[in-house]
Design goal:
Elements (H helix, E strand, L loop, with lengths): L1 H16 L5 E4 L4 H5 L4 E8 L4 E5 L15 H10 L9 E2 L15 E2 H6 L3 H11 L1 H11 L23 H12 L7 H10 L1 E4 L4 E10 L4 E11 L2 E11 L7 H15 L7
Parallel strand pairs: 1-3
Antiparallel strand pairs: 2-3, 2-9, 4-5, 6-7, 7-8, 8-9
Helix pairs in contact: 3-5, 3-8
């Protein structure tokens, strides 16, 4: 009996240990989309049902960059999980400081702060969470390099926090599959505020980001698309050494849509 039990345990171990290897398709032809905006960059798409990556500029797949406002996905989860933010309707009053983005110059709740990428709201959220809890949750959910150096309310913008395109995809997959160490309620709320488009054909959940340091501009557009009982995860990271390149804000999303349209995943204008 013991031998039979041991054999069954061994067979179960073999079966559960087998993970099909993903395939990768390199698309060097996507360079044309980056050239038109005079930027460098990389694009990653993961097709869940086919366990397949489609990658442009594979050398950046594991290269680290500041997440900038794409961190708002994780920051929202942490705010909700710690109780700092009660729900998507939780309002933080505007501090009356007039900023260049006129959409920021008013009170915001979590929904509108996410939609408008309102930096002051998320900086205040981080301050209310506190350094110890923030670091705890970054470590627990394994977000990027989990480095909070550079200031509690700036580490994802000007500080030490870095993330790779590969890690962006991994984090989004765990969020979609409810495998992050947050409550189902927190994840459901964040998934809801992430919706950028909901059509009859597909749903896009996404976030942009922009790191505008003195020596280089870095733009992100990350997210996932639910379509035809499949999920397509994407990460677009663009860079320019020309700090006066005004194409970055538009290009991060536009390039993504052009590629997704070519792959016939979306039909965006």
């Amino acid at each position: 009996m013991k031998k039979i039990f041991a054999l069954l345990v061994f067979i179960l171990f073999i079966l559960t240990s087998f993970v099909p290897r993903s395939t990768t398709e390199i698309r060097n032809d996507f360079k044309k989309y980056y050239d038109q905006y005079k930027v460098e960059g990389s694009f990653v798409l993961y097709d869940q049902n086919n366990n397949k990556f489609i990658i442009y500029n594979n050398k950046q797949f594991k290269e680290s960059f500041s997440p900038a406002s794409t961190f708002k996905i994780c920051n929202s989860l942490i705010g909700l999980e710690t109780g700092v933010i009660k729900d998507e309707n939780f309002v933080i009053a505007w501090d009356s400081v007039v900023r260049q983005n006129i959409n920021w110059n008013k009170d915001h709740d979590l929904k509108t702060a996410y939609k408008n990428s309102t930096v002051w709201y998320y900086r205040e959220l981080a301050r209310r969470v506190g350094g110890e809890k923030m670091k705890y949750w970054l470590d627990k959910c394994k977000y990027g390099n989990a480095d909070t150096s550079g200031g509690l309310d700036l580490f994802w913008l000007k500080g030490g926090l870095k993330i790779t395109p590969e890690q962006q995809i991994q984090f989004l997959r765990k969020l979609h599959d409810n495998k992050l160490p947050f409550s189902q309620r927190s994840m459901d709320i964040v998934k809801k505020i992430m919706i950028a488009k909901d059509t009859l054909g597909y749903v896009i959940r996404s976030k942009t980001g922009l790191d505008d340091r003195k020596d280089r501009l870095v733009g992100w557009y990350v997210g996932y698309i639910e379509k035809d009982n499949n999920v397509y995860y994407f990460s677009n990271c663009i860079q320019s050494n020309d700090i006066n390149n005004n194409n970055i804000p538009a290009a991060r999303k536009a390039i993504s849509i052009q590629i997704l349209n070519e792959l016939k995943i979306t039909n965006e204008k």
